[in-house]
Amino acid sequence: MAVTDWRKSVVYQIxxxxxxxxxxxxxxxxxxxxxxxDYLKTLGVxxxxxxxxxxxxxxxxGYDISDYYEINPDFGTKEDFKxxxxxxxxxxxxxxxxxVINHTSTEHNWFVESRKSKDNPYRDYYIWKDxxxxxxxxxxxxxxxxxxxxxxxVTNQYYLRLFDVTQADLNWExxxxxxxxxxxxxxxxxxxxxxxxxxxxxxISKAEYKDSDKIGKEFYTDGPRVHEFLNEMNRNxxxxxxxxxxxxxxxxxxxEHCINYTREDRHELSSVFNFHHLKVDYKDGExxxxxxxxxxxxxxxxxxxxxxxxxxxxxxxxxxxxxxxPRVVSRFGxxxxxxxxxxxxxxxxxxxxxxxxxxxxxQGEEIGMTNLYLDDISQYRDIESTNAYQIMSENGFTNxxxxxxxxxxSRDNSRSPVQxxxxxxxxxxxxxxWIDVAKxxxxxxxKQALADKNxxxxxxxxxxxxxxxxxxxxxxxxKPLLEEHPQIFAYERKLDDKSILVLANFTxxxxxxxxxxxxxxxxxxxxxTYHSNVLEPYQAIxxxx
Length: 545
Ligand code: TEU
Fold this sequence. Notes:
Structural class: alpha/beta
InterPro entries: GH13_cat_dom (IPR006047), Trehalose_TreC (IPR012769)
Protein name: Alpha,alpha-phosphotrehalase
Number of helices: 15
Largest sheet: 8 strands, parallel
GO molecular function, one term: alpha-amylase activity
Bound molecules: 1-O-alpha-D-glucopyranosyl-D-fructose
EC number: 3.2.1.93
Organism: Macrococcoides bohemicum
Distance between the termini: 25 Å
């Protein structure tokens, strides 16, 4: 069904390289997405977000764009992309594409020109600075390791790169550059896109270039002109397109900024991803550590944003996973046995899909795909993981200790090929896949999930249909419950005289529901056997009254 208000929609994220290969080169492609549109229609999602498919040397799998106007031949052609849009639209599915405009690949023609000389017309498209006494201009750290400035021998100046050395940060202070970006966005709107996901968009306005006590993010996160730039972009591009959906990826943003990014009257973006709830298994804020997740903190953060954003009139994007995160069933659920995997994957789905905001489902999540569990560094493909391996080795970590951490935290965990069936390579490709297929594909795959009416897939299908049918899930007020309870995730949604109660047991032990909670009402969804005052291990239930 086509939803009338974009706020009621559910988005499915596709990482094209790992979705479905139709050419037999070991990598997914656009035609592979077309092939699976009927499957996605059966699931019931409204939008597909495709991570970048533009021309790129693929050092960061497409987040290093070398030509915004061309499709990477590994993924197909522009005609293929057009056909994908037409075929998706024919099924009532819309397409959001990824726009990476904080940085480009150093192979982008703008950068090739920019580095040639200090007076090149493209010099100011990027951020160039002199060093300080033979050292980089500031001590900021790159998100992928090392100092964030790269010395370029041609002019003996440094360029800023908050990510990889091959991803140079664009200079948004330059109006000419901004206009080029708006032209490019308009090109893709005219091409037929229905929405955009903006990569690390709250980093585009750099404040000052000074040394930091930490890694420097206070100088470029939610910077001084970011709202002005987003408002300008909105007015010059998608602002007048009714129903056009945008989501900004906002690393380390604040609640207050998020409200301002998404309040309708400010004309910036429709919604925002923030990652605070996905840092609850970082020891002392550090990603490359091993720590059981802090359940109370997870609830605290999610509720703070749920209540805060809606009170402030903004809009959330809600998600457990994406191509940068480990698989949620392995992270906050339990993949130690088949029964627990299925039950906890459904529990996580139920917990998230009654929250307020736009839900995102990451490919494979709907069948409960697990982490990849690679056991040798040579099997890793992600640039962030291989850099981290290098840095941890230099810091004296043993190979085993590093692999143990990567098995929990590497971005490759969610980048393994979608498991379509139990044939060789999980039906993803006829060649050697670019990254290993998870070993459990014979048990966990789409074919199996579709054939089993009790599979995780049908829980997702039902949750999507419920959101489409019940306004309260979209518009209802959120009321957190049992915030300090060590096992139960509980909340209520309220609209007019109706309410929905959601209860989820995040542990492998049964748990009594405190007597303050009234569990009467009709069941909307239940992954367990009973509707009683005792929740079974990993049981989640939603009750309407
Ligand atoms: O990610 C930005 C980002 O900050 C992360 O989620 C990052 O991957 C994480 O901090 C690593 O620990 C976006 C893209 O989603 C990611 O795939 C790109 O690598 C990155 O931007 C650079 O474009």
